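Instructor's aside before we start: the two examples that follow are unrelated to each other. I chose them only because their records fit on one page, so don't look for a connection. First example below.
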Amino acid sequence: MSIQPPDPSPRPASPSSGIRASHDDREAVVERLRDAAVEGRLDPDELDTRLERALTSRTQGELAALTADLPRPEPAEEHPPLVLKGGIFGASRGPGRWDVPRKVTAHGGVGGVKIDFSRVECRLAEVEVEAYGETSGVTIVIPDGWAADTGGMDPGTGGLRDGTTSDRLPGTPLIRLTGSGGPGGVVIRHPDDRERRKLAKNPERD
């Protein structure tokens, strides 16, 4: 029986390899490379080299080559959307550990709503928080190292107060804030001094 020689023709490229990369495509690879460096998979010099190539890549195939030797990120567990409504006694979620969905909707109502992400572990790239201040307002607290995009928020008559910084750490979610401040307003910030003392006193509290 004769043995057939291997086919010398190259394998066809992935259908998407030649597609032009977008800014979001490049940013996703940059985030993944930074995460890999934090995990110790890339040394600083290799990270710099790959980041430079990522930012100048023109196609999805070029981007894919930069992460081909890295493990695929595990998909985040999906949780149903969360809706909070501020009744007479208000409503809150956190600061204990809780499962963060991709979307949270908060209606301040007559009692107000507070959403506290201080103790959560979230592997999502983005979390949408749709907040309506209504009568008593909505307050959102995010940990240091998380960042917020408030460009889609209508401040309304109560206004929007953004006390967050833009120093986002690799592997942390972006809080994309939408909705309207209404009369009560919306506040998004990092923990205040009192909340920090409580976090320091009970760092593992559920």
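Example two begins here.
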Amino acid sequence: MQIPHGKKVYFSSDNHLGAPTPAESLPREKKFVRWLDMVKEDAAAIFLLGDLFDFWFEYKTVVPKGFVRVLGKLAELSDRGIPIYFFVGNHDLWMRDYFEKELNIPTFREPKEFIFNDKVFLIGHGDGKGPGDKGYKRMKKVFTNPVFNWLFRWFHPELGMRLAQYLSVKNKLISGDEDKKFLGEENEWLAQYAKRKLETKHYDYFIFGHRHLPMEIRISEKATYINLGDWISHYTYGEFDGTSLQLKEFTE
């Protein structure tokens, strides 16, 4: 994709809408909608890198209640012809085809390569990548197993959603302190993952979410790893103007 003059590509991740309660989440949802209103004026594309919701499970004919403001705004932007891409995070693993059919937003489950103005990007949510965290990787295999999905769908949505939302809010990714700490460049596992990817192919930018901590790490002379932070504490996003990418904070 060639970015037209005056246009930009935007990246956002980890809103966790609905947590810890719908009432407490609502101001953050409204703030994110205001950000979408801002970027729509010059957006060549918008990338949402997962965990937009703190929990999302689509039954065959049922989608979770709530989030009408952000879903309506995404529909508006998509209808205006702004390309939007969604990467499934660990809190919205159980997304089916609602975004694709209702909002015309392609959905990806693994990191994907994009090229903008000859700059090569590898983009994804980031969960389960890099060394370590074997417990989560095993858990993810269970949660994405078709048998597990089939069994969960037998729960009445009222019971299944209540149980899953309770467990999701208790998840350390939304409630813990350890994700707020910078581990050092040598210990940031997504940076290590990016370095390994460079052994087989050149990328200019690796863009991920999941860590909830905005960071920019130069991992080689020509490659940079960027974590987008979140919309819980930092309200940060990425902005690529066709030449370089910057991390910015949305302030009003």
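Residues 8-109+135-182+228-249 form one domain.
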